[in-house]
Amino acid sequence: MSAQRSVLFDAQGPRARRITLGFNVLGLVLVAGICWWILAGLAAKGQLDAEHWDFLFTSRAWRNFFLPGLESTLKAAGLAIVTSVVFGLVFGMGRLSGLAPVRWVCTVIVEFFRAVPVLLMMIFFYLWLGGLGVVSPRQLPLYAVVLGLTLYNGSVIAELVRSGVQQLPRGQGEAGLALGLSRAQVLRIVQLPQALVAMLPSLLSQFVVILKDTALGYIITYPELLAAARRLGSAHSMLQSLLMAAVLFIVINVLLTALAGWVSRWLSSRTSGRTRPDATTAVDPV
């Protein structure tokens, strides 16, 4: 272990360890002081009194606000994640196409939607679809949120796919071509599965971004979790209501991280394979 550590970085001496420990203690004291200052300010204004928190634990708050808002958030995020992955895979593979026109078109589309703010796209689709009248007014905010999230995050995922495939060793593609596979088959069968496993942490981060960006939907009246918390807080205490919404977002992100870790381990076990012992060949004595 000591040999591995010496390769990665130089071991700290006694003086460096004391300095590091001192900075760590100073950081902890600073964080504790900030937390105490915030709590003291809240207590001075009565924000820590039980009467400002009791409403969060009533059945009415959860039945009429938090649970419906959480359902709307998960619905929009789930739909946007699925459609973003499909969009990203299609246009990411398109950017790797051997046909120049396909590659150029996919590049223009991806770069355009990566540059446009998500909120602007949500507002555009909300007004455009509303003007066309092809979507019911009740479902219009959901469609606008999902479309905006899909185009932006799908473009980011497409770039992740492209960069993930290009970072693979060149021998992967050359071996597939040597076996008689076409370039599209090499990309689909050999390179893409390995790239997906390698880019899973970045993909997870993008899923978290999708989940959090659903909160932008309240601008176009989508009843997601943040909007529900704001409605509840307007009748009781806004700070406590928003803190509960933040806790719910954190819990969902932790569960999403755990799920991604399980998927990563499962994919690694599926792609790594098992090593079989080599068959020994008996050699007759000379």
Automatic annotation (TrEMBL):
<dbReference type="Pfam" id="PF00528">
    <property type="entry name" value="BPD_transp_1"/>
</dbReference>
<dbReference type="GO" id="GO:0006865">
    <property type="term" value="P:amino acid transport"/>
</dbReference>
<dbReference type="InterPro" id="IPR000515">
    <property type="entry name" value="MetI-like"/>
</dbReference>
<dbReference type="GO" id="GO:0022857">
    <property type="term" value="F:transmembrane transporter activity"/>
</dbReference>
<feature type="transmembrane region" description="Helical">
    <location>
        <begin position="73"/>
        <end position="92"/>
    </location>
</feature>
<feature type="domain" description="ABC transmembrane type-1">
    <location>
        <begin position="70"/>
        <end position="260"/>
    </location>
</feature>
<dbReference type="InterPro" id="IPR010065">
    <property type="entry name" value="AA_ABC_transptr_permease_3TM"/>
</dbReference>
<keyword id="KW-0472">Membrane</keyword>
<keyword id="KW-1003">Cell membrane</keyword>
<feature type="transmembrane region" description="Helical">
    <location>
        <begin position="241"/>
        <end position="264"/>
    </location>
</feature>
<keyword id="KW-0812">Transmembrane</keyword>
<comment type="similarity">
    <text>Belongs to the binding-protein-dependent transport system permease family.</text>
</comment>
<feature type="transmembrane region" description="Helical">
    <location>
        <begin position="195"/>
        <end position="221"/>
    </location>
</feature>
<keyword id="KW-1133">Transmembrane helix</keyword>
<protein>
    <submittedName>
        <fullName>Amino acid ABC transporter permease</fullName>
    </submittedName>
</protein>
<keyword id="KW-0813">Transport</keyword>
<feature type="transmembrane region" description="Helical">
    <location>
        <begin position="140"/>
        <end position="161"/>
    </location>
</feature>
<feature type="transmembrane region" description="Helical">
    <location>
        <begin position="104"/>
        <end position="128"/>
    </location>
</feature>
<dbReference type="GO" id="GO:0043190">
    <property type="term" value="C:ATP-binding cassette (ABC) transporter complex"/>
</dbReference>
<feature type="transmembrane region" description="Helical">
    <location>
        <begin position="21"/>
        <end position="39"/>
    </location>
</feature>
<dbReference type="InterPro" id="IPR035906">
    <property type="entry name" value="MetI-like_sf"/>
</dbReference>
<dbReference type="InterPro" id="IPR043429">
    <property type="entry name" value="ArtM/GltK/GlnP/TcyL/YhdX-like"/>
</dbReference>
